[in-house]
Amino acid sequence: MGEFKVHRVRFFDYMPTAIRAMAFNAHTERLALARMDGSVEIFNFTDHYFQEKVIPGKDSRSTESLCWVGGRLFSAGLNGEITEYDLENLRPKYSLEAYGGPIWTIISNTQGTQLAIGCEDGTVKLFEVLEEHIQFERNLDRQKGRIISLSWHPSGTHIAAGMMDMIRVFDVPTGHAVQRLLVDRGFGGSKSQETVVWSVAFLSDHTVVSGDSAGKVQVWDGHTGTLVKTHLVTKWDVLALSVSKDESSVVAGTSEGTVIQFQFIAPTLHQQQDKEWVRTRTFKNHTHDVRALAEIETAIVSGGMDTHLVVRPLLEKFDEKSHASGLRKIHFPHRNLVSCAKKAGLLLFQFPGQLELWRLGDSDGHGKPGDRLPLKRKPEKLLLLKRKGEDHICCSALSSCGGWLAYSTVSCVRIYRLQTDNNNISITKVSKLPKALRSAHQLCFSSDSSKMFAASSQSSVLVIALTQSECKYVHTLKPKSGSRQPIHLMTTSVDGKWLAAANSDCEIRVYNLQKLKLHCIVPVYGSCPSAMGIHPTTNNMTVVHADQQLFEYSIVEKQYTDWSRKLQKQGLHNVWLDRDTPVTHVTFNPKNPNQVVLHDMHMFCIIDQSLPLPDQKTQFYNQMTLRSLSEQERPSHLHAFKICKTFQDLLCVSLLDDQSLVVVERPLLAITSQLPAPVRQKKFAT
Amino acid sequence: MATLCEGFTLCGLVQTQNASDSPIQGIELDEDSDHAVVTDSTRSVTLYKVSDQKPLGSWTVKQGQLLTCPAVFNFQTKEYVVVSDNKVIRVWKDEDLNLDKAFKATVTADVWRVHSAPGGEPVVLFQRGAVRFLDSLLSAPQQPIEDVLSEEEVIRWSASIVAEEQHFVLFTTEQNGECCLYVQRLNPNTLQKYRLEREDSGASPLSFSASLRDKHLNLLYLYPNGCVYQSVVAARGYVGLEGVQDLPRSLRLRLPVGEGELGAASAVALDEAHVAVVGVPHPSARTGKDFLCIWNTNFQTLQAGKEMAGRIHGQVWCYLGKLFVPHGKALSIIPYECQKSSLASALGKLRHTGIAVSKSSVAVPSWNTLLHGDQPQGPTKIVETRKSKLSRKSQSAQALTVDQVLELIKTGPVDEVQREVEVLVSRGDAQDLQLSVGQLACHLVARSQAETAFYTPVALAQLVQTQFLCHSVCPGLLLLSLEHKDYFLCQLCLQLFPDIPEVVTCACLKTFISVPDGDVEMVSLEPDSVSFMEGLVAAGARGGQQNGFSPPLFEEDSCDANHQPKPPQDKKNHTLQLEACPVGLHKAVLLNEVLQTPYSDNFLLPHLKDLDTQQVILFLQYLQFVYLKYSQDVYTQTAGLRSPTMTQIIDWVCLLLDAHFTVLVMAPDAKGLLSNLQSFVKSQVKLFSELGKIESSLQELHKMKLSKDISQYSIEVIELF
């Protein structure tokens, strides 16, 4: 296939923020995840844990707790507000001041009719959930000391509240506290410190399980208020608890990064009746605090200070080793944070608070494969653009010529004109933006930089014409019917004729930009598209889905191409299907129309459509083998998927117009090294 | 450990007119493991569900008729079979209500028992010894039945055992005080008769119990004097043998009998090591014989005991972990558990109950004798009967039995004893050589200890070389050999005994060190160890270094092990190496054996203090010598030879220093030695610190691959194929 010059970029200091809370919606199988910066992510657990939505954060918002009520998502935070999210427009729908000081926790009852929040001022406030809003109902008896954690009894009649040094059980109809469970303080020096009951769980048999800052998981009888069992699990804090749906298992997350499972089982085989809560397993997948936990049907989902989401399948729920039974760690977002100007050799990095524009270095040397070339010009940070306002950047784009730059928050869109002559760069904000352009879920420039496309609400796309000094609203491409879900992927063809937009309902619409109308809808596939691209010469669209399936669709003929049909007929190689990170970017080689470049977190792949497809028996990762073979033997071993794993932790792989690859790596080690120090643990011989 | 669980009553019993007769004839299982078919001594058969303690069904024959054999369950046809009035075989099913309406067949001869076992057809054993399958008998009930037994021979006990493909019927008979065991194999039918050894008292066994283990039929029988014997008959083979054979037996257990003999008692084997006994007094309880006990035959220990209220009829059945014992007015079921015995539990039990267990012949280490220091003796001093004397006269040309040799050892002259032991050991085929070797050794040692003139080194060496001996079996042996300066035997013992106590090791060490070189050099020792030592001594004498390496001069802090051979007077380097070995060759060989003996330092240390300073210094010098030799490159250890390891040497040096440090510090002649040893330590410490340094470098090698400098940006060239 040949040699490639690779720009190996490691200067994108992307730093995910810590996970603060999560809530799992068992009905829709969506996991909502709140991070420290106030952003909320929605993962679809039925679709290979695909991150289908991201609601950007805001400086003043700090989410402490998340809660699903049916399909509605609520959060509450230390800013004292309850927020409901608009999941179609990826923004807060409304925020409501609760007037109770900082809110530590928010829960709903099983019927989904009421919300309860725990406030700093010691009140538990009940809110009624209305059609479009929530309304304050009443306070339960006010306590001295803050309410840190809450749990609603499944019957809805009682609420357990974790406080400082104690747990209160409230009778909901009367609002009175009926039980007072005193939680012991820690031993030794921590005796003088109040014990914070970080988490409580109220089971249907009126058992209360609590996790506290003294490192205990305690089981209480909620009827009598007596302590049944204490498990001292850590020297540090037990921060999170989660109960399985059948209430046979409770998991606890600790500051040490462990997740400890307790199961309600009989200690001996003979007496199956006398069940008790027994500590069973310990999972250690985190280095830092486990702040958020969810025990779902077949797995334990955990996240915390070390920023990655871990899905740890419970192996006893699986009959055989399969794709689903593997441990999943989700480190990077499933969308692009890097834009690459292919003609100009510029990179745009998107941070929540700023954008960075870099010019790649240069080298005129030639070298053998494996060599590192001497640099003629070092890479250069051209621009650091800080956003205005409190809202975090949700998307950004750089035109391929490098002349335009745009970003959007939930409240505004900004477009900049960039001019680079030799070493000077000048940036001008485009001042007058059309009124229709309020915010965008996705931004994208046409390849000739004459137009900009902004994905707007209800799956519509705004077309903006760009000229030297101004930008003008042209048209809104609006689907007549179908989903109102936000667009998360957008791509245009090089000839400027086509625009494809995919939304989180798995619909991909192709618009004809000359006629400014819908051209066709790609047949809906059951898994969300994670990356797509339109071929520069053939106008075939390559779509990769979260379940790793790969399709090629001819826009002109409105049907799948022969190659795609052949691929589907033969089936993708199991090694390909078993990868656990989605493909996040598709580009093409302008010089060789047969080549498609894809990448996920752990590899990039060049698909050569002229070569035979691998069948299940073929060695899939065959680069090493090919290298060892002689020139004559090689052709018989070639197959279409050329995979390179030299580069790891990839955020972007793109092919510049000069045929060189750009690889943006963000080593996990570098992320780990920027985390705060974990709690000290006594290790042997230290 | 074995335990008896809390028992429960299955049913009440009706006292028969004759109080000595048991109200129960037999208990059998049917296909449900929770069922028990109980046949009483008169007219009825009752089926019980054991766990519910309640009867499921009962069948009775008419008044005037009598059941003469316990009912059994035919596992193949799912029917019950019983015999009434000796000749009428009745077969019925579970759902039949009336036994009189059941199928009946009258046979021509008196039936002794019907036996049935899972996986086999029911078999009918006639009182005159004939055996028929039930099926074939019922198809022709009037067929003639032959007599197998002679007129006065009566069957006392019978059992049937089904092995994988073999079906056996075992029965014992009695005639004029002589007991015989018949083993009837079915398909093909062969009958083998064995004569049981007579007990001295002339009594016949009270009870039998048969079991199949490792393809051998084990017969366990209890005599009124409390002896429980075991005899083993191979399940296969011996088919062609004609005539009556003597059945060898071994004493498994001697039960405490108390006053008088046992009346109604029974023993049943639970597993290899455990025997359940009823009707025998509890050794630590009051008089009275109404106990159910479980004994461990390996350790001769009582494992569990339970008093059974009321009269015991000497009956016990054992099915599926439950013991069925009729006693008083009830039939009790006592579940039991037998775990593999561990020494600790056996010992613990011993101390707990404080039973004085009778001495036994078993050569498995008897913990009782070990603890109390008794000399193991032949447990059953078998009085030579006229018969055995006769047979000995006739056989002595060939070989004596173990017992006879034991007798001989007590009185016989050295030569003869030596010869006979040799013959016995070299015959070697006896499967229980293990047992006899222990006995022989103990007897030989006992005699030698009693008579100083009597000592049989060759015989003892042979016994040791069988590798069946260990120190605990015959504790006196090693010390005896030391006493007699039989260093060869000492060496053998040190090599082959795994369990020499530290005190004895120390005694050996002391003797070896203090023995004059001249004495030892003449002794012939095990050639391998001698050649090893020769090689070791010679290695230094050859001098020189490999590859022309000449060591640098000795420096104060020289740390390399290589340099150590040069003591402070390094100019006399060669002379020192030549005369280095501070002890004679053979003495060194013996010391090496001591070095390789297993020990635990806590126990060894106090005994090491017994050595006097000169001995310690000499030994340390020797250890230093070996250490230096080992440290040399020149010496390459011969693989396969038994030799002390470097670690063993260092450990011994440490131990000796620990034990005698204060003395050594004061002793002027130990000064040089100590400073040398100190430099050992230094060099070892340095060696390890050097290794520690290398470790990190080696780890770096691992990381080398990844160590490619990772910069923020680079342009690389890759090639894809």
From TrEMBL, chain A:
One of its GO terms (cellular component) is 90S preribosome. One of its GO terms (biological process) is maturation of SSU-rRNA from tricistronic rRNA transcript (SSU-rRNA, 5.8S rRNA, LSU-rRNA). InterPro entries: UTP4, WD40/YVTN_repeat-like_dom_sf, WD40_repeat_dom_sf, WD40_rpt. It comes from the Eukaryota. GO terms for molecular function: RNA binding. Gene3D superfamilies: YVTN repeat-like/Quinoprotein amine dehydrogenase. This is UTP4 small subunit processome component.
Automatic annotation (TrEMBL), chain B:
GO terms for molecular function: RNA binding. One of its GO terms (biological process) is maturation of SSU-rRNA. Pfam families: Nol11_C (PF20998), NOL11_N (PF08168). One of its GO terms (cellular component) is nucleolus. The keyword Cytoplasm does not apply. It is found in: Nucleus, Nucleolus. Keywords: Activator, Nucleus, rRNA processing, Transcription, Transcription regulation. SUPFAM superfamilies: WD40 repeat-like (SSF50978). Residues 1-336 form the Nucleolar protein 11 N-terminal domain. InterPro entries: NOL11, Nol11_C, NOL11_N, WD40_repeat_dom_sf. Residues 427-721 form the Nucleolar protein 11 C-terminal domain. This is Nucleolar protein 11. The gene is LOC110485992.
